[in-house]
Amino acid sequence: MSTEAQIDAALEAVVSAARHHRAALRAGAPEEQIWRAYVALNNATVRYDDLISEVYDEVTPWDCEYLEAESDAPEPGPDEPPLLPPLPEVPATDGGALMVSVRHRRDYVIPQPTRLLTLATEARRTSWAGVDATHAARPVTDIGEAVNELVQAGDGTVAALDAYPEDLVPGNGVLVVNAVRRPLTFADAPANGGPDPLLLGPDEAQLYRMDEEIVDEDTLDEPVVPAASLW
Q1: How far apart are CA 136 and CA 129, in angstroms?
Q2: Domain-by-domain residue ranges, the chain?
Q3: CA–CA gap between residue 86 and residue 169 (Å, rounded)
Q4: With bands split at pLDDT 50, 70 and 90, how would you rate the model's confidence at 149?
Q5: CA distances, 134 to each of 15, 119, 131, 138 (Å)
Q6: pTM of the predicted model over 0.90
Q7: Which of 96, 166, 222, 228 has its CA 20 to 30 A from that of 117?
């Protein structure tokens, strides 16, 4: 039986896919990109419909069936390049298993940096009070440190920042899936002369990228300067 959390996540996927489809239309994206956004929205809808049918024996007003991104995709014109470039050779480990790196960037606007520092200082005081009284009493004075403190005060992931929508206003994001050969280790950090863990090596490959565009109809004409970016 599906859980309420799974249903909520499926609903959020529908909303995200709908926004992505809307952004592709707004941007005048190529027909192939719009098609893929349509398929993602369709399949997210089917998933949500299936879950509420399973749990509540209810349905949505959308009559959809799962689609394959390649099926019925628009064909390129005679002078147009193929819709999809050939998939690069994917590196595998010695045992044949594939190792992937999933990277998610989300940009945020911080309307009141001072307020964010205050929130982070309070989060630190609460989180560390019974662990390290000296650290708990130390105020947060840096924006990067503040964001980290709020992440650690939550579940340890960027999702923890969703609890502060007025102080960290979400902007555009991107999710990338890469095939990699070497696992992430911190002994070979850039500070020690090691490679940048966010850069692909010559024998590694990007497998997938999903752009997430946040569109606020009420503030389309207002200039916004991103104040922080998280990977």
Answers
A1: 5
A2: 4-56, 99-230
A3: 37
A4: very high
A5: 44, 18, 9, 7
A6: no
A7: 222
